[in-house]
Amino acid sequence: ALTLEEFDNVEVLPSKIFLSGGGAHLPEIKEALETREWYQSLPFSKKPQISFLNPKLISNICDETKLIKDHEDIVPLALANLALNFITEEQMLSKLLKKVVRLMQM
User: Fold this and answer.
1) Deepest of 4, 27, 71, 106, by most Cβ within 10 A of its Cβ?
2) In 3-state terms, what secondary structure has residue 1?
3) Which residues contact 74 (CB under 8 A, 6 or more apart)?
4) What is the Cα–Cα distance from 46 to 99, expressed in whole angstroms?
5) Rounded to whole angstroms, what are the CA distances from 28 to 13, 74, 90, 106?
């Protein structure tokens, strides 16, 4: 896993940090990030705001079951979103290549 200190090629880190996954429920994590001065040695332009990532922020996924409600569901949603992006890209590339081949045959 990467730590924030390993992003040495980044001039300024984003000032919003979103927590997700089952471990995000641990109150100590959010509390420690909000109350300690850990961020001062890192390139933040201001004190980071810590919040939970909401499943509604994941685009391209529509929960018709109404069962996805918590930040525990973010990881599976994000993986599904990534898979959809890969499938869409592959389909578009395949169509584009077919058109190019057809044009070359003319």
Assistant:
1) 71
2) coil
3) 20, 21, 53, 55, 58
4) 50
5) 23, 20, 42, 66
Whether the pLDDT of residue 32 is over 70: the answer is yes
Instruction: Tell me the pLDDT band of 15, cut-offs 50, 70 and 90.
Output: very high
| 12 close to 67: Cβ distance less than 8 angstroms | no
pLDDT of residue 97 exceeding 60, the answer is yes
17 CB-contact burial (10 Å; exposed 0-12 / middle 13-18 / buried 19+):
middle
- Tokens found for residue 106: 């003319």
Q: How far apart are CA 8 and CA 31, in angstroms?
A: 26
Predicted structure pTM score: 0.60
- Number of structural domains found in the chain: 1
